[in-house]
Amino acid sequence: MRILGIDPGIAIVGFGFVDKVGSKVIPVQYGCIQTEAHTPEEDRLLHVYEGMVQLIDKYKPDAVAFEKLFFNRNVTTAMIVSQARGVMILAAVQKGLPVAEYTPLQVKQAVVGYGKAEKRQVQEMVKIYLHLKEIPKPDDVADALAVAICHAHSSTLNSMIKEVLKK
Questions:
Q1: What pLDDT shows up at residue 78?
Q2: Class of the 2-166 domain?
Q3: pTM of full prediction above 0.85
Q4: 28, 73, 139, 162: which has the highest count of C-beta atoms within 10 A?
């Protein structure tokens, strides 16, 4: 199963593709889609949407997992990031892909084993878990890979539960 993990944003969208093969999670490709500041919002949204479509077409994931947005201060930033997230979900749904969402707490729990882990701990565990030489940069990329790992763990758990319920 190939999973595309996404850390939504408008200036930087982190993405990470992983393959789940048995109990292993193997990195395939990761990076970010970036938009220029002071560019009209509609142009930035189009760039994010087109970038998602290109990634999906090239790497052909079986599922897309997003980190749920959490904002406690800047409403303006929350609105544009929500719009960017919307065009990314649209790109996935138009390609017929299932979409999953995970809270930051769920992602940290899945990757570190502790829901209140610090960002640096998550990044270090992503590096270790995926056998990477260094922590992916910018931070949004490591976060996207963490979301993909979380979905890989979640899909395994869901499969196990379904098997038990069949019996």
A1: 82
A2: alpha beta
A3: yes
A4: 139
